[in-house]
Amino acid sequence: MTLTKPATRPADPRFSSGPTKKHPGWRVENLSGAALGRSHRAKIGKAKLQEAIDRTKALCGCPSDYKVAIVPASDTGAIEMCMWSMLGGRPVDVFAWENFGEEWVTDAVEQLKLKDCNTYVTPYGELPPVEKARKEADIVFTQNGTAAGVKIPNWSWIADDRQGITINDATSALFAQPVNWAKSDVTTFSWQKVMGGEAAHGMIILSPRAVARLESYTPSWPVPKIFRMTKKGKLDAELFEGSTINTPSLLATEDYLDALNWADSIGGLSALHARADANAKVLHDWIDRTPWIANLAGVREQWSNTGVCMKIVDPRVLGLPADKQAAFAKDLAALLEKEGVALDAAAYRTAPPGLRVWCGGTVEKSDLEALTLWIDWAFDTLIADVAKAA
Question: 0.85 exceeded by the pTM?
């Protein structure tokens, strides 16, 4: 039992899973080149947006014939834009294992009321039976479940000769985990996740198969203006050249460009992947040697390398009533925040009680190493109170 506070503190206590920590070396002065007070349709504004599109495509390594666009309403807007525009002409399979994936289930079943729609929803920590995906169906899934810490371990469950398209919510995966571009027809993400950018903006990456769907299928329901990607039956090319559907923040755009500059400076995509893997390994190794905590993800190959979610498995805590167990987990996160060593580290509000710590590439490995010592201290401090109460 460790009741003496650790001597080493994280240099930066920001471990939020979104918006996430800014990249090392971020300063507000880095944004001095933002095209503030200018129209996003002006030459300078449009050039900034086009640069964000082109450099995203280059950094993530998607094929040259894929299309990239900036869209409104973060990753949610990007996913719903594609669901409203592309689904309905084929059977649909939706896989969900945490809060955000369940929102896409709600959209498919209750809002779009899709026919021949199979939904597979599992509890936090468990991957649904993705092998049940049908070749003839469109597939909606989350590559990495932010609130559950469960990622898809591979892409073999998506058929090479599928007839439908895939819609991949990759917001906490892109730039941290490999994407099989041959099997990801629609890929969406938001700036405020892995790259540590600002909120409110989403991006979509479309394969030629997704473009063909847009140009060959018209939904039976009305499509709001901010969801429209075609004009007169053809892809709206301007959308993929920096002419966003609603007004984007050019300050947020500059911030994203700054994040891309940092990513290039450290070695690009492979370096981003390596940083996330090394960061997550710190927590994964600590979980392995710490008997009172476990990864919320039940299968090791499904453990996330970005949002690492953990549950308390100590018998003394599990022996408490459910409300007391939840209170213990909240107190644990609150004590870490009070000490200024981990901010926003509580489990997601709909997830089982525990901790959630962001390990994406903008976080420093040394901060996570220091954090584990403080989590040990905080647990020992709180469990001592439990013992006294007993």
Answer: yes
